[in-house]
Design goal:
Blueprint (H helix, E strand, L loop, with lengths): L2 H4 L8 H16 L6 H29 L3 H25 L6 H29 L2 E2 L2 H24 L10 H25 L27 H35 L6 H10 L1 H12 L3 H26 L13 H18 L3 E2 L1 H19 L2
Helix pairs in contact: 2-3, 2-8, 3-4, 3-8, 3-10, 4-8, 4-11, 5-9, 5-10, 5-11, 5-12, 5-13, 6-7, 6-11, 6-12, 7-11, 8-9, 10-11, 12-13
InterPro entries: Alkaline_pH_Ca-Antiporter (IPR052946), NaCa_Exmemb (IPR004837)
GO cellular component, one term: plasma membrane
Subcellular location: Membrane
Length: about 375
């Protein structure tokens, strides 16, 4: 039973209710202003508090609506605000931000498919030895993520219509429409036609179980709507405060002599913190399928929603839009797809699979620092 379900009616002055509001006020106060060391520290603390509050309210909403709707709500909410952050940074960054969307989206894919999945499998396996999940649903999600990633970030490297790793306008429009179609088809399969494929699997008989069947009764509609509103406030605060911190992040990256592309990695790490914590906590309760829904769903939303919005934003954005991956990134993506297939197909995993995914994440982070 989670803390969210143990206290179904938290007091209005609970920290999970207060922190998102305070973080939003801090965002309004600091937006567009130069921040000194003290303000940077305060913003970082509010950012961390907003992440924890977002996880709490996401669990309340998920307990009310059940799976896979709960994972979908969190993944889509985070991604929509992530897209807004990317567009904002691209508008303010000028030509130097040509690869920001690619770097951030690719980082999100690697963090979700290796970081979230790896941590969740390792957390679950350390407690239960072997963790079962639904291979049909996870396999379908992985196939969709792979197709989206290849169409949007690998194909531009090999097209010849435009100079460099970028699409021509018709190609970008096709990629955007294909991304929306793939994401829409997957959501329909996940929530309507094949919902059973995405339900948590019982640890004993390895059969799908409805996540609404919890020890505590689900929260009321009023509590769920309140948590949904506070979840959105917390996510806006997370992404907005990450934007406020971005000058300090860029300065820190430059002072350490790291590539400018590492800024996209840091942004993705910050934005995906709520989903990461929620997935690891679900794995600790034996609900690894929820963790996989969050990981693959976030990767899918990061590509499927970002590419169409970026394609639309190019109408008023100046400079090229570099979406094509470099050779090292394509190798890492290919390794991730192969390893993920070997992880998903059996429908069961041990700590070894979790460790392999975490090593792939470490390789990505290392090569992002030392390309």
């Amino acid at each position: 039973m989670t803390s969210a379900t143990r206290s179904r009616i938290p007091p209005m002055l609970s920290w999970t209710n207060v922190v998102p509001v305070l973080s939003l006020l801090a965002l309004l106060f600091t937006w567009g202003r130069e921040t000194g060391p003290i303000l940077v520290t305060v913003v970082a603390l509010m950012l961390a508090g907003s992440v924890l509050a977002a996880v709490h309210h996401a669990e309340v909403v998920a307990h009310r609506v059940g799976e896979p709707f709960g994972s979908l709500v969190l993944a889509v909410a985070v991604t929509i605000i992530e897209v807004a952050l990317i567009v904002t940074l691209m508008i303010s960054g000028g030509p130097e931000a040509a690869t920001l969307a690619r770097d951030t989206v690719f980082a999100a894919v690697m963090i979700t498919t290796n970081g979230i999945i790896g941590l969740s499998l390792l957390r679950g396996a350390l407690k239960y030895q072997v963790v079962p999940f639904n291979a049909e649903g996870s396999g379908a999600a992985l196939a969709t993520v792979t197709t989206l990633a290849v169409l949007s970030m690998v194909v531009p490297t090999f097209t010849t219509g435009a100079a460099g790793p970028e699409f021509t306008t018709p190609q970008l429009v096709f990629a955007a429409l294909a991304s929306l179609a793939l994401y829409g088809m997957f959501v329909f399969a996940q929530t309507v036609k094949h919902r059973d494929f995405f339900l948590p699997v019982d640890m004993e008989d390895e059969a799908p179980v409805d996540s609404n069947d919890e020890h505590a009764p689900p929260p009321s509609n009023r509590e769920a709507w309140t948590s949904l509103g506070l979840l959105l406030v917390a996510l806006v605060a997370v992404v907005g405060l990450a934007k406020v911190e971005s000058p300090a992040i860029e300065a820190g990256v430059a002072s350490l002599g790291l590539p400018q592309s590492f800024v996209g990695v840091v942004i993705a790490l910050l934005v995906l913190l709520p989903e990461t914590l929620a997935a690891v906590r679900a794995a600790g309760r034996g609900r690894v399928q929820i963790s996989l829904n969050l990981g693959y769903g976030s990767a899918m939303a990061s590509i499927g929603l970002t590419v169409p919005v970026i394609a639309l934003a190019t109408i008023w954005l100046d400079g090229p839009l570099m979406l094509g991956l470099e050779a090292t990134q394509m190798v890492l993506l290919a390794m991730t797809v192969v390893v993920s297939m070997l992880t998903v197909v059996p429908g069961r995993a041990t700590r070894l699979q979790g460790g392999v995914h975490l090593v792939l994440l470490a390789a990505f982070l290392f090569l992002a620092v030392n390309p």
